[in-house]
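Retro notes (design track)

What went well: tokenization of the new backbones is finally stable.
What didn't: we kept losing track of which sequence belonged to which structure.
Fix going forward: every design gets posted as structure first, then sequence, in one message. First example under the new rule, 617 residues:
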């Protein structure tokens, strides 16, 4: 019995128990080694002119339930006795890596294994491993046997053809682990489909086939060899070979969506980093999309081997709705479960970001109906993307936003809004409300619409925050119609305010700190009162922020505006002249009414109710 050449059982124990997250990874690693062995043989045949028939190369899996063994074999390049001792007897010795570096055209070799530790993942599930290998062109075969940390032995063996077979003697089941599942036909198929579906060589196994039987007859079966993997992934095929149905079937089967995507991106990129990608923009958000349980990310493959189900680094948060796969030759870490050089991922992410944006812009321009369907599901996420990170992504996202407006029948982009602005309009106007009809009915809307200006409808909590983050679009500032200074001049407003100052000052005193000012307004037409705000914090922001956990009773600076041309103002003047106590009650009702229009509930409903009934007397 030979000891491992590292002279450290602890290192092997660490590799078996700590490097890999899931025990099922062992099958991916052993199949990847088989793929490397077949690739080496292909390369060798090209260089020595032996004319190898590539179609004869394959990987086989065999299950023996009675012996509790799982065998993974290939008819690849195989190993000599010396190579068995060197590659398997020395931990972290990669024969694949050495083979690649020893060849002049190493860039032409797509070798998966690099670190020489994937093989040892077998010991996560096996109590003993037997490797029988015969090198290509050799006359003899050899056997490598090990039960793990106690060492290994190598001895002569019989093998008819070149290649390698790895026999795993599975561990006994425990309370925590069921090792028998790795002898289950369905489980093996599932793992190959998950991790190794796009290995370039066929992976074959004898599978159970149920035969037709008459009623009452015993069920009959036979063993039939099946190829378990697809080999050529759809994203590596030429686009002209793939139909829309092919794409949609792949999408539905891979991402378990019952609806077709609204758009797809199939791209192959060469440059600073090479990759292929097939991305889909769903037509409907998953049920948990706007919750903490949703996990973003793209499936990441390297040389046909699945590295991770969800690579978060490949998508910015604002495009987290995108589903798809990326295949690239990346530098992996020792376990092949994460990427070693984040710069590679960063380059891919930036490139994917541009392609997603371009596809969405194309959809917005050429298929508005589809885009509006998409935006209904994911528009809120784009708005959060504009608002988050202090608005640093606004340039990327602002042209993807669309809104309802009070004048247009369909949603418009910011560019479309600006293009339709009258020459004298200084600002991009917006208003907050539950829906378009409610915004159109706001008292503050009347004057703006009368000027011929349109109003963007902010119907979601994030809308105003997103517009504030953008700040300006085409050198036009955003202006809320509820701002105290809305940018629309009223020539006689100062005179009116001066004439009514005694009354408005009295109402302000009656309302106390509920408002920062009460003024006579000329912006109102048919309505009697409205609330506007001063400063950066709007009334809508007050509502949103106070709805957050642990909110500290945040208050906007509110201004009560009174329409002095309204018939009700005569009663206000009369009360001021003859019954100031009555005017105090009227002040409470005016403020509460203006607040209700803005969606604010009264702080003291009892006080309001008493004021209303005192006025009815």
């Amino acid at each position: 019995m030979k000891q491992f050449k590292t002279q450290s059982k602890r290192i092997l124990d660490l590799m078996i128990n700590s490097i890999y997250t899931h025990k099922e990874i062992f099958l991916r690693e052993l199949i990847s080694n088989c793929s490397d062995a077949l690739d080496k043989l292909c390369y060798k045949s090209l260089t020595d002119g032996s004319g190898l028939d590539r179609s004869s190369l394959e990987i086989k899996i065999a299950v023996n339930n009675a012996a509790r063994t799982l065998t993974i074999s290939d008819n690849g390049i195989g190993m000599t006795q010396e190579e068995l001792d060197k590659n398997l007897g020395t931990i972290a010795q990669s024969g694949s890596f050495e083979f690649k570096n020893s060849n002049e055209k190493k860039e032409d070799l797509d070798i998966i294994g690099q670190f020489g530790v994937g093989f040892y993942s077998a010991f996560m599930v096996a109590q003993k491993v037997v490797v029988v290998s015969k090198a290509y062109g050799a006359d003899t075969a050899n056997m490598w046997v090990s039960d793990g940390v106690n060492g290994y032995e190598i001895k002569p063996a019989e093998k008819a053809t070149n290649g390698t077979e790895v026999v795993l003697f599975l561990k006994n089941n425990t309370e925590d682990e069921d090792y028998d599942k790795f002898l289950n036909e369905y489980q093996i198929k599932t793992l190959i489909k998950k991790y190794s579906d796009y290995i370039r060589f066929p992976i074959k196994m004898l599978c159970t086939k149920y035969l037709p039987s008459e009623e009452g007859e015993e069920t009959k079966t036979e063993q039939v060899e099946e190829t378990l993997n697809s080999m050529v992934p759809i994203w590596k095929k030429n686009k002209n070979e793939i139909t829309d149905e092919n794409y949609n079937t792949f999408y539905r089967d891979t991402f378990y969506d019952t609806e077709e995507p609204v758009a797809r991106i199939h791209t192959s990129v060469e440059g600073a980093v090479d990759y292929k990608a097939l991305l889909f923009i769903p037509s409907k958000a998953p049920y948990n999309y706007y919750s903490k349980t949703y996990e973003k990310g793209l499936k990441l493959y390297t040389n046909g081997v699945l590295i991770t189900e969800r690579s978060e680094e490949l998508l910015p948060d604002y495009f987290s709705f995108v589903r798809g796969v990326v295949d690239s030759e990346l530098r992996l870490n020792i376990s092949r479960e994460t990427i070693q050089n984040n710069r590679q991922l960063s380059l891919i992410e930036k490139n994917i970001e541009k392609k997603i944006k371009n596809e969405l812009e194309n959809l917005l321009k050429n298929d508005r109906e589809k885009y509006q369907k998409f935006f209904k599901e994911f528009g809120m996420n784009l708005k959060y993307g504009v608002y988050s990170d202090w608005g640093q992504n606004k340039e990327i996202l602002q042209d993807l936003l669309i809104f309802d407006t009070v004048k247009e029948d369909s949603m418009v982009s910011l560019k479309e809004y600006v293009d339709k602005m009258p020459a004298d309009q200084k600002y991009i106007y917006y208003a907050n409300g539950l829906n378009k009809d409610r915004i159109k009915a706001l008292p503050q809307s009347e004057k703006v619409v009368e000027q011929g200006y349109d109003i963007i409808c902010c119907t979601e909590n994030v809308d105003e925050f997103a517009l504030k983050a953008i700040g300006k679009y085409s050198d036009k500032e955003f202006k809320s119609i509820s701002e105290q200074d809305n940018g629309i001049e009223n020539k006689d407003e100062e005179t009116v305010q001066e004439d009514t100052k005694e009354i408005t000052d009295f109402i302000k005193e009656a309302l106390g700190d509920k408002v920062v000012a009460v003024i006579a307004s000329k912006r109102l037409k048919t309505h009697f009162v409205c609330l506007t705000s001063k400063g950066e914090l709007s009334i809508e922001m007050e509502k949103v922020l106070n709805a957050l956990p642990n909110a500290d009773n945040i208050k906007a600076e509110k201004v009560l505006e009174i329409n002095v041309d309204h018939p009700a103002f005569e009663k206000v003047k009369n009360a001021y002249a003859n019954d100031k106590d009555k005017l105090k009650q009227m002040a409470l009702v005016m403020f509460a009414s203006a607040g209700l229009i803005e969606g604010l509930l009264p702080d003291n409903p009892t006080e309001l109710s008493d004021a209303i009934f005192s006025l009815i007397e």
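Added context from the reviewer: The radius of gyration is 36 Å.
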